[in-house]
Amino acid sequence: MYSEKVMDHFQNPRNMGEIEDASGIGTVGNAKCGDIMRIFLDIDGNGIIREAKFKTFGCGAAVATSSMATELVKGKTVEEALQVTNRAVMEALDGLPPVKVHCSLLAEEAIHAALWDYAQKNGIVIKGLEKPKADIHEGEEEEAW
Amino acid sequence: MIYLDNAATTKTAPEVVEAMLPYFTEMYGNPSAIYSLGSAGKKAINEARRTIASALGAKQEEIYFTAGGTEADNWAIKAAAESYGNRGKHIITTKIEHHAVLHTCSYLEKRGFEVTYLDVDNEGIVDLEALKAAIRPDTILISVMFANNEIGTIEPVREIGAIAGERGILFHTDAVQAFGQIPIDVEEMNIDLLSASAHKLNGPKGIGMLYIRSGLKIRSFVHGGAQERNRRAGTENVPGIVGFAAAVRRAVSIMDEKGRKERGLRDYLIGRIEAEIPYCCLNGHREKRLPGNVNFSFRFIEGESLLIMLDMKGVCASSGSACTSGALDPSHVLLAIGLKHEEAHGSLRMTLSEENTKEELDAVVGYLKEIVQKLRDMSPLYEDFMKAQKDGRRPAMGEEAEQGRNLQGDIYSREQ
Question: Interface pTM (ipTM) of the complex?
Fold first, then answer.
């Protein structure tokens, strides 16, 4: 079901863990849907992402997309990181099954959320970055039995 | 490989395969034919029908072969609705039925029937008082599964049969998971319709049956030839039917011993997991439970990840996580017993057979300890939980938003 790349990033996730005193932290997804991603970014004075780490509750694809997203943003400027789309994450993983595409969207959102947190903390505006919409409790509702 | 997914399907027993083979290669005649090549098949079908009927306490002519459990469920419910719809349009079932029943019921709801979906308690058992209260003058059918496929809970079928019988309401039970595993008697239990499938009891796939109490008006569901006493058209799956009967013969003869062995293995596995892996919870009833069923929720982790990692160790199991089914919501059964979404996503079902060994289970516990910890180390939910523990406050995430059973207390107390 998964590509070799996805399996590799799931079995050997890159950048798993936390960054203490991170410049920006973003958490997206919710427990109801079964995916929560948290991305930590360490951004230096020149706006370059020195380090990126993640923690994820979710399926194999959720772990692999988190891993790949952190790989893709490392070493990039904040503006460049903003251009890392879910499509880029998917392509770097040699594709995802259709039902797992939302995991890559979550990874993109998690990066945006971490960048937003960084911008808020430092009182700066990153062009093109909007307030992340995916609150972890968003969309929770009672069972429709 | 360690196979722990016997509720999904079982290995076809060697004696079953052996019994089937001649009906592919030598006695391949159409059972409806006049010549002896055909009548050999006909004879085999009748013998098979007798074997299966006697395993259920039924009469031979009350057994109708189908392509499987799903067809039997569809047939029973739709045909009962069609035949008895003039008496009333109300059906009672439960929230934990297999989709073969639930989706058939929702199909009927779109066609003028009303369906009551009974709640179950935290262990998955139907409340008999709630069942009685749900019965209306226009109730024509009660459909409650014999035992649940996910959590293994065995329902009070005898009591439900009595309630239905006293009121003249038809009683259907989906016995796909129970047949061949635990004793069933349709007479004693007052069952009018019962669905079963061969491949759950070491028989072949693609063959099942519906027991229809004699005298019931259950019309044909598949139209065509006169097979199955005009009630289920189509050339009989002779090898499948023969294999089904061979599997039933085997299951009946080893039921006590197999059950004892599986219960022993099951309780051993449950005991080790509960003792050695923190923040987990057994789903389903501890005693009223299928002999081979083990179902746990491991908090802070997600089931599909767990399954992939177990697969890499050669362990086959399943999960109620949404990700494993392609659906958005996790298992309806786990939600119905009051699990929060997060707990349902972190569920693991291991269904044993008598062929499993203690050594295999020891290996599985070892893998589980390692994998669960690895996934928890990756989990932001676990991170939040551990930080909250350290700060002496309740965890913030994924807690308050959802209602239902507060598993937190159970786990805390078990941990201490």
Answer: 0.89
